[in-house]
């Protein structure tokens, strides 16, 4: 039987945001929290998605849930269950919402029937927890099929779509045709960008809410240079300068944590020296992230001409159950790496990080981003791409594709956008120019940090959801 599970997130105190965001923003947040507490009363607000680990949605839910609970709201989180066929179908929808086919499978009556059956089985358990009058925020294609059962039970459903593409084509049309019948019971819709909204929702209750990061999470909290090097030495990316001490960080619940697990690394030769330039891309192993393209572009334009190293970093593929393409994409990257000359392979490593402990995984990513000389996000399509804001928050220069939500994050002077993500020569040249001009790189990073502080921290996210709930309550 397919049974969803509740994901526990400790409450986060709003007060810790005050020194960062200033008194005016903090006061606005407190007033909004008071209004929403009064509005919701005993109502429970549920987030429902497909996984609690791997990818930006799970990370955003940690932030939204933690701060909401911190102000006294009854917010809870359910992660659905599914069989392999279900996740193949939803990955197909995911890819086609980005305007690409993904695989060559169908999205016809048989796929719709299986999708419906899996979510009907999940709904039976969901309705043991969710009560009449509650509000459910359903995230992405994996959850849309719950809306009908929730509506029948007297629950208000809001569908939140984190992905999309600016222009429609046959693939986006096919994905929206698949989803449309399942979305009809929803009371409102939330999109990351206005350009992602399909034509049939014109006039519907649509709100645009870009994602945000939490500066105090294990992925974004301050880490000293000593702790960064200890973490990266322990997982095998850098030469271990102090192998006797694991790197320390603070867990989401405030308790001390240490990085004790290692990474799985495909590499040629010794670990990277702590003072050698390092370029990284951190992503799921997904064709749309184009990890292979980053590898090929770096190998062709930088290896042998610059002393930088490249690390492509993703989750252990067995630990992200809602992404059936992960092992295939990682395998393609390894195959491409194996074709390179040995001297070039020595400059490139493929790193998979364990997901057994999500806080420890986040601390590993944090250390990688803080150590990087340049952070890359060369996606072919991107709903938002939280790794961009994460890198910018750490005052790093980011080179990224001018696609989707990435464009919304990188303002002029806060990073470098590559107009055509398929032009690997242009990508390599931009990256090489930045690595050769470190003062410019540092200036970009400083402006990037300020831009994220002003636009992409969690207080803005919470205010926008507060406004959405107030709008629903007055309809």
Please summarize what this structure is.
The protein has 475 residues and is of the alpha/beta class. The chain has helices spanning 18-40, 56-70, 84-97, 109-129, 147-152, 170-183, 225-235, 291-301, 326-338, 342-345, 358-371, 386-393, 404-409, 424-435, 438-455, 458-473, and strands at 5-6, 45-49, 75-79, 135-139, 156-161, 188-191, 206-208, 248-250, 256-258, 264-266, 278-282, 309-315, 348-353, 374-377, 398-401, 416-418.
Characterise the protein shown here.
By secondary structure, this protein is of the alpha/beta class. The chain has two domains: 5-212 and 457-473, 3-Layer(aba) Sandwich (Rossmann fold); 225-455, Rossmann fold (3-Layer(aba) Sandwich), CATH 3.40.50. 43% of the residues lie in helices and 14% in strands. The protein contains 16 helices and 16 strands. It has helices at 18-40, 56-70, 84-97, 109-129, 147-152, 170-183, 225-235, 291-301, 326-338, 342-345, 358-371, 386-393, 404-409, 424-435, 438-455, 458-473, and strands spanning 5-6, 45-49, 75-79, 135-139, 156-161, 188-191, 206-208, 248-250, 256-258, 264-266, 278-282, 309-315, 348-353, 374-377, 398-401, 416-418. A seven-stranded mixed β-sheet has the order 1-3-2-4-5-6-7. Helix 1 runs parallel beside helix 16 (458-473) and helix 3 (84-97) crosses helix 4. The longest helix is centred in the N-terminal third of the chain and has 23 residues, at 18-40. It is globular, with a radius of gyration of 22 Å. The protein starts with a strand and ends with a helix.
